Each structure stands twice: as C-alpha cells, then as structure tokens.
Amino acid sequence: MAYDATKMKDFEIAEAAEKNMPTPGQWQERLGLEKDEIIPFGRIAKLDFMKIIDRLKDKPDGKYIEVTAITPTPLGEGKTTTSMGLVEGLGKRGVNVGAAIRQPSGGPTMNIKGTAAGGGNALAIPMTEFSLGLTGDINDIMNAHNLAMVALNARMQHERNYDDAELAKRNLRRLDIDPTNVEMGWIIDFCAQGLRNIIMGIGGRMDGYMMKSKFGIAVSSEIMAILAVARDLKDLRERIGRIIVAYDKKGNPVTTSDLEVAGAMTAFMRNAINPTLMSTVEYQPVLVHAGPFANIAIGQSSIIADRIALKMFDYHVTESGFAADIGFEKFWNVKCRFSGLIPNVSVITATIRALKMHGGGPKVVPGRPLPDEYVKENVALVEKGCENLIHHINTVRKAGIKPVVCINSFYTDTKDEIAVVRRAAESAGARCALSEHWLKGGDGALELADAVIDACNDKVDFKFLYPLEMPLRQRVEAIAREVYGADGVSWTPEAEAKAKRFESDPAYADFATMMVKTHLSLTHDPTLKGVPKGWTLPIRDVLVYAGAKFLCPMAGAISLMPGTSSDPAFRRIDVDTETGKVLGLF
Fold first, then answer.
1. Mean pLDDT throughout 33-44?
2. Would you say 473 and 499 are in contact if contact means Cβ atoms under 8 Å apart?
3. From CA 458, how far away is CA 404, in angstroms rounded?
4. C-alpha dist (Å) from residue 381 to 7, 92, 376, 377
5. Residues of the chain with CATH 3.30.1510.10
6. Which residues are recorded as binding ATP (predicted)?
C-alpha cells in the first residue's frame, strides 16, 4: 500500500511503515542468515560480513546495478529515492533484490540537504535511526581519526619537552615532526565553518603543542574513504596504518604506524566494518555502509556491502554520489578496479527540473520557491537541457554499459516534456523509463524495473577509461577530456611538481586517481550549466590519501568543512516529549 505522499511528510510515512518493519529475527529467517550472522541493534541490525562472505563464497553473484544521475540542481535529483523506488519496483516483480546506500552525515542532515533516506514512498526506514547516527559507524570513525590527532599532538609536546635520552626512557624515538607540515586535522560531524582554521595548544608546556590546525566534516576523513574501499578487516588495518598524519622536517611522511596508534584506531573500527541492515517502506532489504564525500573521496557505499549483497540477492542496487561525471566515473575507474566487480547496468536519474536548469532556466536556490519556469511547461528548456543528459549517457557508454535513463517524475512534469527526454535518451542509445516511485512506491516503478531487468540481459563489454600504468597527469587529461568535456588541463607549478614526484615514485604506481571538483557543473565552475565548451580544467593541488591509496587532483576550491546556512534544518527538528518520537526530519 502506498501512502499519500502529497499529504504526508517523509517522517510521517516512515513512522507509519515502521510499525510493520521486519525485526532482526524476521530478517534472519527471510534472508536465510545463520543466527550468528546478524547482530541486533534495537529495531535494526548489523550483518557479520566475514561470516556471511565465507559461507556464501561459492555462490554466483547476482546482477549488479549502479544508480547515478545527470548534473544536479542544488536540491538534488533523487538518486536515493530512485534507488529505493527501483528496489521496490523489482520487489513488485517478484525479484530477490536488495540495495546498498551511504550513511548520511549529521552535517547535511541538520543543515540544508536533510536526510539522505530518499523520499515519499521510496524511502529507507527506520528514518530517525538512519538520520541520527544509525549504529555508530560515523562516531567510530570520529574516535579513530581524532585519536590519531591526539597521538600526534602529544608526541610533538613530548619531543619538545624531553631530550633524546629522556624519550628513550619512555620507549619513544624522536620523529622530528614539522609543525608547519601537518596533513591531518580534527573532524566533527557537523557543518561548522568556524572550525575550518584553528590554533590549538594555547597555554603552557603541559597544554599540548601550540600550532595551527583545522577541522573537517567527519565524512571527509580518510578513514571513511578506507572503510568504503577495504575488502576485509586485515585490509582495513593495513590501510589505517599507512595514513600520513604529518611530515618530518626532512619531508618524510609520519604515519599512524610511526605514532603507534593504528592498532587502537582499528579497534574503534571493529564494529564499523559490518554493514547495517535497514528496509524500504515496502520491506525490501537495504544495506547501509560508509558515507564518504563524493567531491573529494569515492562517494560510494562500501565494497564490503556490495560483496555480500551480490551473494545474498539476485539483483543488487548500489548508488554513486552526485552525477555521472563524479559518481559514476569513480565507481567505474576506482571502485570496480579495487573490487573486481563488473556492473550489469547503470541507471541515470534525471528530472525535468534539472534539465530545464541546464537548458538555461533561472538559478535554483535551496530554501526559495522554484521560479515559474520549473513548474510550468517549457519544452524548449527541456530540449536544450537534454544536452547534459546525453553527455552523461555517452560517459556511461564509454565503460561498455548501455544505461537506463530514469525520469524521476514530479507532478509538474508534462507529457510533452517527458516525450522530449525519451526521444533524446533513446536516440543516444539508452533505454528510458518514467518512474513515479515517490508518489506510488513500487507500483510506480514497474516501467523502470522492467527496463533494468531487460538491460541486465545485455552483454557488457566493460573497460576502464585508462590503464593503471598510465601516469597521473595523463589520467587527469583523459578524465577531463572524455568525462568532463574539457579541452585540456592546466596545472599550477606546485601541483605539477607534486604530480611529477608521484609519477616518479613506484610507491604510488597503484594509487587511484580521485578527482576533486564541484558536483554542480561538468566543469570546475559551479555556475556553468549544460555542457560547456572551450574550457580548460585547472588543477591547483594534489592531495595524497596513503591509506586509501588515493591521489586527489583538486580542481577549484573544495572545502572539507561545509558551512551551516542561515535557515538550517535543525530549526525544525524536535522531540515529542510524550512519545519520544523525533519530529521534523525531511
């Protein structure tokens, strides 16, 4: 039964659906899990990854479906809603299906974006737990990350206060850390722009080492990126031990292993390695695991979640952050390379609203009413905006995949506008389906489900955009030209010097190229919409995530700590003091 999404808020739909949500014990029976493979956490549960993958290791993988999107408006175009709707539609077709999505950060949840649970009748539940910390993975990441900073600052204080003989008595060797070359900062899971740049250690000699420092949002932590790409606990431990915290005065990296803190950091992560089991409002299983930034990290749910889901389900839906130029590109050239998994199909989520923006429509501003162009028929804007859709279709096809375009339906869409999108998608070599999952749940997603089932029968000639042997600057050039549509790449002297150093050092030969740019444009400039021509991608720096094994070329200014708006979501969130229920989540 679909709820009336036109009258009920998302948290009200979630509350109604949660009354009949399967318990951990019911999930165990329904999914054929052994008793010790499911770990109850109240109304939800974690899955013991290692036990499940060991038991099912010889079972063939199911169909692997990735969900991406066109370049979005600042409001987002509903990838999670589409993912949940597709799972519900496949469920209506009697398919054994599940999904994997990212865990939302408290920063966006309490700011402008709100929860990332989907919406309407295409929603992940329980919504309150999902939005407010779930089973503690982000808290574990914050503890592990900040412990590294505690170890660093304490070590710098002790090395300042004691000579080498005194350090040796304490079983410490001098690391000679350069206070002007510290790579890591602290993290907190809120959008706190006042913490972007700080001075710590103010006081006396016993109050830590005084130095400049910084905060990032929790999901930007390298540990979150590691959780997304690790294959198992051993791999996680090894990667955490390679994290570069700072550099010494000779320019050599100082790692968490050098600080002898990697083991304790991993201890905090021992439970976080297991995915959390949730549900759609129509009671299909949804795994939630990892939530890395898509701008600067991989922007995917975990390889671990995909590995066990492909064993547990005949059809598995996974979601990539942002549009195909970011999310799908990283899924294609990084996640699939790390995991060895090959997708059967990619679903490109599109809205008439976003296509109108790319066709020259007025600026879309969160928190303000949409201009008339977005709520009244304007076929010309849609037709022009389809250039952006076609660009993303071509990107997916370069991987050897024939995509499915999902028109995520809004009540303001008209038949003529939808027809324009269908013609454009099909002429570009993609299937196209209109989906009303927000309004109708699985019943509204049957056309999408059928298109995806059909597409999963296509032969996939999967190929990466570039070989791993290709030097870093050539990889960036290939991504810029083939995925973004740039004429080329320009490098600042500092960024090029770093790139040359990484290219000449065999230690970085197998590092992934993790591009950093805005999600609001194919270019580095968020104001440029559609498919801009005649531009060059500027690279101003290259970050290194040694544990995750990422080299991150940075195009434009991307902050690891977002700011809180003047009208954040937390102003409308409260608790019913009679029932304890959380109100106002969206």
1. 95
2. yes
3. 12
4. 30, 35, 11, 9
5. 137-267
6. 73-80
Whether 79 has a binding-site annotation, put simply, is yes
Q: What is the CATH number of domain 10-136+272-455?
A: 3.40.50.300
* pLDDT tens by residue, 447-506: 999 999 999 999 999 999 999 999 999 999 999 999 999 999 999 999 999 999 999 999
Separation CA 504–CA 196 (nearest Å):
33
Residues of the chain with CATH 3.40.50.300: 10-136+272-455
- 77, 69 in Cβ contact below 8 A? yes
- Catalytic positions, please? 79, 81, 102, 113, 294, 322, 410, 438
Helix (H) or strand (E) holding 329: helix 329-330
Query: Would the annotation count 78 as a binding residue?
Result: yes
HSE-up (13 A, CA, CB side) for residue 472: 31
All CATH 3.10.410.10 domain ranges of the chain, comma separated, are 472-554
What CATH number is given for 472-554 in this structure? 3.10.410.10
CB 432 within 8 A of CB 349: no
- Dist CA 9 CA 530 (whole Å): 32
Q: Is 402 annotated as a binding residue?
A: no
pTM of structure: 0.94
Q: Stretch 30-57: mean pLDDT, rounded?
A: 96
Question: 89 among the known binding-site residues?
Answer: no
Taking all residues of the chain, what is their mean pLDDT, rounded to a whole number? Answer: 95
Report the CATH number of the 137-267 domain.
3.30.1510.10
- What is the share, in percent, of the chain residues with pLDDT greater than 70? 100
